[in-house]
Design goal:
The chain is an alpha/beta fold and 347 residues long. It has helices at 16-27, 60-70, 91-111, 144-163, 189-198, 222-230, 249-259, 291-297, 305-319, 340-343, and strands at 7-11, 31-36, 51-54, 74-77, 116-120, 166-172, 175-176, 204-206, 212-213, 216-217, 237-241, 247-248, 274-276, 285-286. It has 10 helices and 14 strands.
């Protein structure tokens, strides 16, 4: 393990965003510890020069013991049950895996002298306000996942004021790219589309597909997360990180079909998208300003959505189609409003 640099902890280190962050931090010569419960992560993502431990952050005593042992200077909290749409049907696990798990990390970290927390939050905290969202807008969560993220943000602010550590809060824009979990049937729209096409099957679009989102390739996210961790200008700040350009889900679908070699205007019947009823509480338009990240972190978009999807499709073709990883214990709430694609495990 590298001996120079800072002593850092990345939670969710075997996941998509966390593993890219570990790579970047190791490359800078830091001593990097990583934890993950492997519910959505993969062993193939773990950097061999990091010190990795399997840990479920819901387990308070085990997490407390781990923080006492590692005593990181800076924590990048990437671990999340980032299933915004599913959270209305798994409200208990969403709260446990997000808000409660975060407090299980934050409290002993403060006790052990942590200097800074970099909290990866979510643009979902803006709710259904009029986009583009900017960091000065109030938190108005519209779903259970967003409630947890808003609570995590506010708890960080309060405890930092009381106990004197630094923090930065980052709200990503639908990050996608190589290593994303394409086997998750509940989230990662681009990954789901790609995985279905890898299997020669059509993908599903909820509602009319005219929902607008901004998407950020992992290469346009990781460097600024690193910078936020070490640059004092980021202390006490909240940042939207990601591009300003928004796309409809239908436009995303066309790009994925294109990079599989299909005519997006006339795909073969066996892969033609299938439309399902809208998911409850799904915000119609969600995209953000990036002025603050540009000004303070030097953010700039370098990977277009077209290029990013091309790269992700090429990576996924090497990986091959993946069986979907449905919840072992199922959904907590199944009613007439639960998406049939989840209840019947149609993907």
């Amino acid at each position: 393990m590298p001996g120079k640099g800072r002593r850092l902890l990345v939670t969710g280190a075997a996941g998509f965003m966390g593993s890219h962050l570990v790579d970047a931090l190791v490359a800078e010569g830091h001593t990097v510890f990583g934890v993950d419960d492997m519910s959505g992560g993969y062993w193939r993502n773990i950097h061999p020069q990091s010190e990795f431990t399997v840990l479920d952050l819901r387990h308070r005593e085990a997490t407390d013991a781990y923080l006492r042992k590692v005593q990181p200077e800076i924590i990048f909290h990437m671990a999340a049950d980032a299933t915004e749409g599913r959270s209305q049907f798994t409200p208990l696990s969403s709260t446990e895996r997000n808000y409660l798990a975060y407090l299980n990390v934050l409290v002993p970290a403060i006790r052990e002298g942590m200097r800074k927390m970099v909290l990866i939050s979510s643009m979902s905290v803006y709710g259904a306000q009029s986009p583009p969202f900017h960091e000065d807008m109030p938190r108005q969560p519209e779903d259970i996942y967003a409630i947890a993220k808003a609570a995590m943000e506010r708890a960080t602010e309060i405890l930092a004021e009381v106990h004197g550590f630094q923090y930065t809060i980052i709200r990503p824009h639908n990050v996608y790219g190589e290593r994303q979990n394409i086997a998750d049937p509940y989230r990662n729209v681009i990954g789901i589309f790609i995985n279905r096409l890898l299997a020669g099957k059509p993908f599903f679009i909820y509602g009319d597909g005219e929902q607008k989102r901004a998407f950020s390739h992992i290469d346009d996210f990781t460097p600024y997360t690193v910078r936020a961790g070490f640059d004092d200008v980021a202390n006490g700040q909240i940042f939207n990180i990601g591009p300003r350009e928004e796309y409809t889900i239908n436009e995303v679908a066309r790009l994925v079909l294109k990079h599989f070699g299909y005519d997006p205007d006339n795909p073969p019947p066996e892969v033609k998208p299938i439309y399902h009823p809208p998911r409850p509480k799904e915000v119609k338009e969600a995209y953000c300003t990036l002025d603050k990240a540009q000004r303070l972190l030097g953010y700039r978009t370098t990977v277009s959505l077209d290029e990013g999807i091309r790269r992700m499709v090429a990576w996924a073709k090497e990986l091959g189609p993946q069986p979907m990883r449905y919840l072992k214990d199922g959904l907590e709430l199944i009613t007439e409003n639960t998406p049939a694609t989840w209840v019947k495990q149609m993907m």
